[in-house]
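fyi for ur records
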Amino acid sequence: MHRSALSRRGFLLTTAGAGAVLGLAAGPAVAGTRPRPHRRPFGRYGSPAARRTPRTLYVDPHGRGDFTSVQAAVTAAEGPGWTLVLAPGTYRETVSVDADRTGATWIGAAEDPRDTVIVYDNAAGTPKPDGSGTYGTSGSATTTVRADGFTARRITFANDWLRADNPDFTGTQAVAIKVQGDRSAFHHCRFLGHQDTLYADTRDLGLFARQYYADCYVEGDVDFVFGRATAVYERCHFRTLLRTDLSGAPHGFVFAPSTAGANPRGYLVTRGRISSEAPDGYYKLARPWVPSSDTTARPMLTVRETHLGAGIDAVQPYANMRDAYPWQEQRFREYRNTGPGAAVTVPENRPRLSRAEAASHTREAYLGDWRPYDRHR
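which gave:
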């Protein structure tokens, strides 16, 4: 069986992604941790006996912290400004951060984000235990963050629900994390899933939430980076997966922004790369998502100075999600990309920024007075 059809439940092999902390050489990542002894589970971040601050809590699945689950720590951390230090381990649970828990910081105590994993396996079509229906896309999220000012470092967020395990299943969206708050930052994190992995969104249509992803790794297949946030992805690696349930192209789409029409800033991908384990040309770079809840949306995506691997269809890199909202009428642009997936063979299919226009498509322009890139280099 091809590795893409294998369940991710298990340990991450030490050989996976050797030499590349955030990515993998081939095959999908596994949402587990490598067995490794940790004499100091919280590393340089203190411990319950030597607490860094009164508002620091320690989480360890083996019982050496204040809590053994992330959600238990979130529930205990009432109000703003709490820090959670997560010991290496696999936290199989769903986690929700309410809007009143602002200014929270989560730190993976290990230097490698593969060692600290929050994972569950709900899909949109998974029945709820109480019999009230299915979870839906938003409800499938392993982690949901509604609060403003959230920061995460060196953590893997994953959803390991697989189509291969559920061939007759409908509702195959399975979100690893849904982020809705303003000033949400992720440094050296990984996001693992298949369809709808990373949901970069807002709490409501009128909120233009800003989000920043630096040195992160994201993998999936269908619309696996999507939503209406103003989001900057800097030096991030996006990897498209092979689908064994399909015999031909396209296998999926990397981005599916749903930017509000009134929002002048959508998704910005800068100085990153897109690789693939699928055959050449089997993936589209993006398609616009105009949801039924906001038919005035004008999805916006700028990809600049990014290496597009051969997995991206260079001839037709964009597609429609619905014919009523053609991609040509949305705000898709590119600037100085490289790689075989960036080759301009049909110019009208590759809308590009001029040098003057590119000056307004920067992290500074998108994030305004919020400067998360000045910290945690």
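The helical segments are 70-76, 136-139, 355-358, 363-367. thats all i got for now
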